[in-house]
Amino acid sequence: MELTLIISISYLMGSIPFGFILTKFFLNKDIREVGSGNIGATNVLRTGNKKIGYLTLSLDVLKAVIPVIYIKLNFPEFVYVVSLSVFIGHVFPLWLKFKGGKGVATYVGILFSINYILGLFFALSWLLIFFISRYSSLASILATLTIPFFNFLNPNYENEYFFIIMFILILFTHRENIKRLINKEESKTKIY
Q: CA–CA separation, 89 vs 92, rounded Å?
């Protein structure tokens, strides 16, 4: 019963669609009708309102940090299950007919909560790849791929299977981006 409750609450926290809520409230727009139609921070930036874009990013990170840190401190044996539940909530939110974001910001929150060194490595990898390519999607995919390798070499080694599963899920959420990258149709992103 306890695990079921923990998973349910984590999923519901992950499924809070901040990109949708903030653009609706502050810009009177439906983010699903802007750019790629995605509710995540990258697409919110396409509204032209960077403050709302970065607020979405921050809240999507925070909604992972709160439950994962709580569980890590109180029920550490459930930390990976909760992390996965939060991520699934973001990608498949109950409130938006299970059509959510791509999960990268939420994954960043998970990484920093599990092991801040992994979070920092992801952030540095993402920034390096992004500034070379200018593709947010490519940076997200490749930075996620680096985590299982870096984790394996890390003296504070974490659950390797979890990070491989997360990479596969990030690949899945970016499947349309991958097609556009292959066809050279992907849009470059301005983050500043």
A: 5
Q: Where are the domains of the chain?
A: 2-182
Taking the chain (192 residues) in runs of 10, the rounded mean pLDDT of each run is 88 95 91 85 85 94 97 95 97 92 96 95 96 94 95 81 96 94 85 60
Nearest Cα neighbor of 186 from 172, 168, 174, 171 is 174
Q: What is the pTM of this model?
A: 0.92
Count CB neighbours of 131 within 10 A. 10
Give the span between the Cα atoms of 91 and 61, in whole angstroms: 13
| DSSP at 187 | P
Residues 6+ apart with CB under 8 A from 27: 47, 49, 52
CA 158 to CA 136: how far, in whole Å? 26
